[in-house]
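A brief tutorial aside. Many learners find it easier to grasp structure tokens once they have seen a single protein encoded end to end. The record that follows does exactly this for DUF2794 domain-containing protein. Read the sequence first, then the structure, and try to relate runs of similar tokens to stretches of the chain.
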Amino acid sequence: MNAAPPFSADSDRVVFDRTELGAILTVYGRFVAAGEWRDYAMSFLRDAAVFSVFRRATEHPLYRIEKRPRLRNAQGIYAVIAMDGRILKRGHDLGQVLKVFDKKLIRAIT
């Protein structure tokens, strides 16, 4: 019997690949170590993969890191969105998009 892995890429949903997830979890780990973030959730939808970050599990997400392949030729496939819906950074390179958190981490530690 040939079973598919739990997060394999289907034609009907968008997922983060191993490299993308590694970059996101690196940022997440830094904020957990700083005591800022405590929980996360992932959603794999038909048009987007979403990594949501929470201060507490019972709250709304502080940030959403989204991958939307349909925006590949427009603003960029990746976006970081704040709790109030503001798009903080958007682009084609996940590493560059995640740099929006660098200033926030420095502020959290000081």
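Self-check: The chain has one domain: 18-109. If you spotted this yourself, you are ready for the next section.
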